[in-house]
Every structure is written in structure tokens, then in C-alpha cells.
Design a protein that fits this description.
- The protein has about 220 residues and is an all-beta fold.
- The chain has one helix at about 20-25, and strands at about 40, 45, 65, 70-75, 75-80, 85-90, 100-105, 110, 125, 130, 150-155, 170-175, 210-215.
- It folds into two domains: about 1-65, no CATH class; about 70-215, no CATH class.
- The protein contains one helix and 13 strands; from the N terminus they run H-E-E-E-E-E-E-E-E-E-E-E-E-E.
- The strands form four sheets. It has a four-stranded antiparallel sheet with strand order 4-13-6-11, with no helix packed on it. A four-stranded antiparallel sheet has the order 5-12-9-10, with no helix packed on it.
- The longest helix is centred in the N-terminal third of the chain and has 5 residues, at about 20-25.
């Protein structure tokens, strides 16, 4: 939780009122211990005055410790939390399986009439910082699909001189959809006077969607 933006705050612990600097940050009851400490302030990165400068109770309004966390994200804008280092692991969507071949009962062969392979999966993105392509669609009966690519990355907060996204900013997350399964081939069952087209074999299974997982500290 964050310290309040107004009213009294105190350095020492005070139970569960949420107004204690030491309860929030844990650096003790000496104001000098907080000089130069990195924190969050109203959702963005903040640093207390550096060593050799004045520090006062007013400097602590709206501040919070950098507590870290981890989560799976969905497609859409994500507000970047306060962090020191952030990591992302992502995977593109898997390809769809090829449709099942049909069957011609008169010559006991596979029927590829109207058969199609599966579609490729779509790429996943962690904003403009990391991407992973989708898997290939299946090109044989009921299978052949590829898994989406995976990618990993880590960044330091630009407030600390790194190249990661700024705390409090929004980046767009894309979860790659899995590819659709292919269409099944036409079946030719034996119907008294010979083999005739009647129905299709089953479609291929759709690929699983990808993911974007982030953690920060």
C-alpha cells in the first residue's frame, strides 16, 4: 500500500493505520536511512533526496515501496508498475492442425478432395520490447502443426538508467491467437452401386493461443 497524500504521517510504526514510514519501507526510524532510496510515488518511479540533501516528512506523501509482482497479461493496454527490473516471457500462438483426410472405400485410399492444412498461429508482443512468432499450420492429416516461438527479455527502469518502459506508462500487449484447424477431406463410402461423396472427415484441431508473462522487482 502507499502512504497517504495528506494528513499526518510518522516515522515510527503505528499499527495498521497506513501512515507509518517505517511500516511501509522498513529502513528504520532514522530519516537519514531513506536518503537516495528508490520508491514509487503515485504510480511512477521516485527517488528520495540523495545523501547530503535535506529530507522531510513531506517527501513521503504518496510514496510506496517497490514490492514486485508477477502476472499473465491479456491483449490490451497494460499500465507498467513501479519496478527496478522487469522480465517478460512470451510465446506466439500455436498453428492449427491439418484437417483429417477423407476415405475412399472403393480403392481404400485417402481422399484429399476439399482438404486444407491448418492456419499458422499469430505472434505475441510485449509492447515494442519483445515479440514471438506463431507456429506453422499443420500440413498433413490431423496434425503437423508447429508450436509458437518463445522469447525472453529483461529491462531496467529508465529512471535507473535502463531501457525498459517507464513506470506509469501504458504499453500494448498482444496475445497471439492459435491458428484455425484445416478442413477435412471428402469421404466416399460404398453405397450399393459404388462409392459416392458423402460428408467430410473431421477438421483439424485449432492451435492454443500464446501468452505474455511478466514479473518485476
Amino acid at each position: 500500500m502507499s502512504l497517504p497524500n495528506s494528513g499526518y504521517i510518522q516515522l515510527g510504526t503505528d499499527g495498521s493505520t497506513g501512515r507509518s514510514i517505517n511500516s511501509e519501507f522498513g529502513y528504520g526510524n532514522d530519516m537519514q536511512s531513506y536518503l537516495g532510496v528508490y520508491a514509487g510515488k503515485n504510480g511512477v518511479a521516485y527517488r528520495f533526496p540523495s545523501s547530503g540533501n535535506q529530507i522531510a516528512a513531506n517527501d513521503f506523501y504518496g510514496t510506496s515501496r517497490i514490492s514486485g509482482g508477477a502476472t499473465y497479461l491479456g491483449t490490451g493496454y497494460w499500465t507498467v508498475p513501479v519496478y527496478n527490473t522487469i522480465y517478460a516471457t512470451i510465446q506466439g500462438g500455436n498453428g492449427g492442425q491439418g484437417g483429417n483426410y477423407g476415405f475412399n472405400a472403393c480403392n481404400s485410399t485417402a481422399s484429399t478432395q476439399d482438404w486444407t492444412g491448418g492456419n499458422a498461429g499469430n505472434a505475441s508482443y510485449f509492447g515494442g520490447y519483445l515479440g514471438a512468432g506463431g507456429g506453422n499450420g499443420g500440413n498433413n492429416s490431423g496434425g503437423g502443426a508447429g508450436s509458437g516461438a518463445t522469447a525472453n527479455g529483461g529491462w531496467t527502469n529508465p529512471f535507473l538508467g535502463g531501457s525498459g518502459p517507464a513506470s506509469g506508462s501504458q504499453i500494448y500487449i498482444t496475445i497471439g491467437n492459435g491458428g484455425n484447424g484445416g478442413h477435412g477431406g471428402v469421404n466416399y463410402p460404398f453405397l450399393v452401386y459404388g462409392c459416392f461423396p458423402l460428408g467430410d472427415a473431421g477438421p483439424g484441431a485449432a492451435g492454443n493461443a500464446g501468452y505474455v508473462y511478466v514479473s518485476w522487482s
